[in-house]
């Protein structure tokens, strides 16, 4: 067998057995939602049960909940089936990645932090621990924002700029000395940057509180935080609702995050994004000569966004609706309906005009523009962030 034929056989075998690859198979298991009930069906059953309770003079908020004993028995059966050594190895891997991410943030090495957070967010927890998956998705998005800021910082400022020189000296000491924080020169440079450099202050992610603390203490009550990220062949979504006012301990217990992923075809998504970018360029050129936008160009963007909405947002919208609006989007269930939506997008979802999709525009509110939402019936999409919530 020739070398070319042998190599082609290996490529076909690798593609055929992709699902059997150990990291891919492990990630598929933790994100497998086939055993979970359909959120739309669960929502309909809960609405029917609440209506029945109302007709019979009972409390409508009392719906059937799965007994905790059943959950414990299922978790015990699952743990007995898995190998104990594999559980120890998985816990050790998670702990090692967390420590690596912390150290990378302390040294402002965002590339290493991104690699650690990407594995923790996409391959470590999945649906088994939704809060951990949501937090690591937020940290991953924040490190990418800092990486883009570093790139822009180097492009816009000259090499002899004072702030850039100080950062170079700091990096030089960190690379040459095992314990640079003990050097007086290092301390002096760092103190100056912390006091005078907004860019250096922005990189101090290790000084920020946890995602849970940010949701509980720094966001208004009943704020729904949604993060959307394209990773490889999937779009990942994470959401959590900040509880209503009350004791902090009780509010922390009320946090019920939702995470999900949906398979996409990167080539098709990129093609749609390129079509949107091309149409936007045509609109910009036209605005130079005419103050009005060609209706045909606007219609082209609407059609492309609708196609993306059908393939990307519709499966995730059912999960969001079934998790956070158990009585329906337009039901005003006291204490559980979100009043503000904070949509946190990455670069791809921003280019895809996710905020203009039907799930946000029609079902939540009639949003006329990104900067001036129209506060009518439904929710107020108060902010559209490109990056992180921290």
Q: What amount of the residues lies in strands?
A: 5-15%
Strands, count? 5
Instruction: Please report the number of helical segments.
Output: 16
- What is the quaternary state of this protein? single chain
- The main sheet orders its strands as 3-2-1-4-5
What share of the residues lie within helices?
A: 55-70%
Low-confidence stretches: 6-20, 68-73, 366-390
Along the chain, the helix and strand elements come as HHHHHHHHHHHEEHEHHEHHE
Task: Note the main sheet.
Answer: 5 strands, mixed
Give the termini separation.
56 Å
pLDDT average, as an integer? 75
Shape, please? Answer: globular
Measured on Cα atoms, how large is the radius of gyration? 24 Å
Structural class: alpha/beta
Number of domains: 2
Protein described:
The protein is α/β, with parallel strands linked by helices and 390 residues long. Helices cover 58% and strands 9% of the residues. Helix 6 packs antiparallel against helix 7, helix 8 packs antiparallel against helix 9 and helix 13 crosses helix 14. The C terminus is likely disordered.
């Amino acid at each position: 067998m020739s070398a070319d034929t042998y190599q082609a056989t290996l490529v076909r075998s690798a593609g055929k057995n992709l699902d059997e690859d150990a990291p891919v198979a492990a990630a598929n298991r933790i994100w497998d939602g086939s055993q979970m009930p359909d959120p739309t069906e669960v929502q309909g059953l809960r609405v029917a049960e609440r209506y029945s309770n109302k007709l019979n003079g009972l409390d409508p908020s009392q719906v059937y909940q799965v007994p905790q004993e059943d959950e414990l028995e299922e978790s015990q059966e699952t743990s007995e089936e898995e190998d104990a050594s594999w559980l120890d190895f998985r816990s050790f891997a998670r702990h090692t990645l967390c420590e690596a991410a912390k150290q990378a943030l302390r040294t402002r090495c965002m590339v290493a932090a991104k690699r650690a957070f990407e594995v923790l967010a996409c391959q470590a927890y999945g649906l088994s621990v939704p809060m951990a998956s949501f937090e690591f998705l937020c940290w991953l998005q924040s490190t990418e924002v800092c990486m883009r800021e570093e790139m822009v910082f180097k492009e816009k400022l000259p090499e002899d700029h004072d702030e850039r020189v100080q950062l170079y000296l700091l990096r030089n000491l960190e690379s040459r000395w095992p314990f640079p924080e003990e050097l007086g020169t290092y301390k002096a440079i760092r103190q100056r940057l912390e006091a005078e450099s907004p860019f250096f202050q922005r990189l101090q992610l290790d000084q920020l509180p946890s995602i849970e603390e940010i949701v509980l203490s720094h966001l208004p009550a009943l704020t729904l935080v949604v993060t959307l990220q394209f990773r490889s062949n999937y779009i990942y979504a994470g959401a959590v609702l900040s509880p209503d006012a009350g004791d902090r301990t009780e509010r922390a217990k009320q946090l019920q995050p939702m995470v999900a992923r949906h398979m996409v075809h990167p080539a098709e998504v990129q093609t749609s994004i390129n079509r949107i970018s091309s149409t936007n360029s045509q609109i910009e050129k036209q605005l130079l000569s005419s103050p009005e936008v060609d209706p045909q160009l606007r219609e082209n963007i609407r059609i492309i966004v609708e196609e993306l909405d059908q393939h990307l947002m519709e499966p995730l919208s059912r999960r969001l609706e079934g998790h956070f609006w158990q009585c329906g989007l337009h039901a005003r269930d006291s204490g559980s309906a979100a009043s503000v939506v904070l949509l946190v997008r990455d670069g791809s979802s921003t280019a895809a005009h996710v905020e203009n999709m039907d799930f946000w525009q029609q079902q939540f509110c009639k949003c006329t523009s990104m900067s001036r939402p129209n506060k009518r019936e439904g929710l107020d999409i108060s902010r559209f962030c490109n990056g992180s919530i921290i």
